[in-house]
Design brief:
About 75% of the residues lie in helices and about 0% in strands. The chain is an all-alpha fold. It is globular and about 60 Å long.
Length: about 170
């Protein structure tokens, strides 16, 4: 390999790390103990936002194995039964791979509308699965507030991810 090929390969690998690193960073941010009473129980699902973003716009950079591993990290940090987020994230990944052709390249309101449906399904699924695995119905209020915050904060997170993608990754293939 000549130096140009090595540099191109390093750049490809670096670009491939950006989606997973951004998701992990957002997940870790959501776990920070912020000094706002009760916020920890209703933090927006930042990881879900980033998974949706990357699967719709750059699915080539976010393989299922990475999504699964990130879900396990969320489960380990959140205290939910192990595998809940991993399953939900994989279902979101699969659904968006199938539906991305209807969303990618369309106006933002459609992108956000798709996310609203995904967030409602994912948060409801997370709540149901966690309730079943715990053997008791978990408080739905916290899940509802989390879902609403997730939907409300999505445009800001998307703005940041667009900037990150433009700076470090590029547009990629459609």
């Amino acid at each position: 390999m000549n130096p140009a090929e090595i540099a191109a390969q390093i750049e490809r690998v670096s670009r491939g790390i950006v989606p997973a690193a951004s998701i992990l960073t957002l997940v870790l941010f959501s776990m920070l103990p912020l000094p706002v009473a009760g916020l920890a129980t209703v933090m927006p699902a930042f990881g879900l936002m980033a998974i949706y973003y990357w699967v719709v716009l750059r699915p080539d950079l976010l393989p299922r194995t990475v999504v699964f591993a990130l879900g396990l990290v969320v489960d380990a940090l959140s205290g939910l039964p192990f595998g809940v987020h991993a399953l939900v994230y994989l279902l979101v990944h699969a659904a968006m791979l199938d539906q991305r052709r209807f969303i990618a390249g369309r106006p933002f309101w459609l992108f956000w509308g798709g996310f609203i449906l995904v967030a409602l399904a994912a948060e409801t699924g997370t709540w149901l699965i966690a309730s079943l695995l715990r053997g008791a119905i978990l408080a739905p209020g916290a899940a509802l507030v989390t879902t609403l915050l997730t939907i409300a904060v999505f445009p800001l997170v998307t703005f940041l991810l667009v900037r990150l993608q433009r700076a470090l990754v590029g547009a990629g293939r459609r």
